Amino acid sequence: MLDNLLQKLLEPVVMAMGYQLWGVERLKQGRDLLLRVYIDHQNGISVDDCGLVSQQISAFLDVENPIKGEYVLEVSSPGLERPLFFIEQFQEFEGEKVFIRLLRPQQGQRHFKGLLTRVQDDVIILQDGSDTQHHLRYADIDKAHLLATIPSPHRKSA
């Protein structure tokens, strides 16, 4: 689900600039590799913020060279439908609507939408529109993100 090595390498770089590293994705697009880095800040993220962080990350990656071959670097805000990478992020957004795609089918399906009701140990508990509860292991999640809705007046603090 996450490239942990890149996350560990890039986190100090991004934090030194005053931002939070929300997550890192490596995506294959045909023969090309896209490295997408999500940053966040309590005051929001602007295009200028993304540009500054992109320059810093690019210089760092040129020196450290953790990625073999060519790639495209994209630095972005997580946005309204922010991806969820870590169990702590799932906990932060308990009570919000999410989409989850599993690595392998569970209960005959790989895609789940619903209310993130609770995180218990390494299990994400999701309630779908028919009030069915699904217990999804964090380790089985391929991708997850919030579903855009009217913003909640407050989030659960971490």
What brief labels describe this structure?
8 strands, 158 residues, SH3 type barrels, three-stranded mixed sheet, 23% helix, alpha+beta, GMP Synthetase, Chain A, domain 3
Beta-strand portion reads 35-45%
CATH class of the largest domain equals Alpha Beta
Q: What is the makeup of the main sheet?
A: 5 strands, antiparallel
Helix and strand run: HEEHEHEEEEE
Helix content: 10-25%
Across the major sheet, the strand order is 7-6-5-4-8
The name of the CATH architecture of the largest domain is 2-Layer Sandwich
Q: Write down the Rg.
A: 17 Å
Protein described:
The longest helix has 18 residues. This protein has three helices and eight strands, in the order H-E-E-H-E-H-E-E-E-E-E. It has a five-stranded antiparallel β-sheet. A three-stranded mixed β-sheet has the order 1-2-3. The chain folds into two domains: 73 residues, RimP-like superfamily, N-terminal (GMP Synthetase, Chain A, domain 3, 2-Layer Sandwich), CATH 3.30.300.70; 60 residues, SH3 type barrels. The protein is of the alpha+beta class. The radius of gyration is 17 Å and the shape is globular.
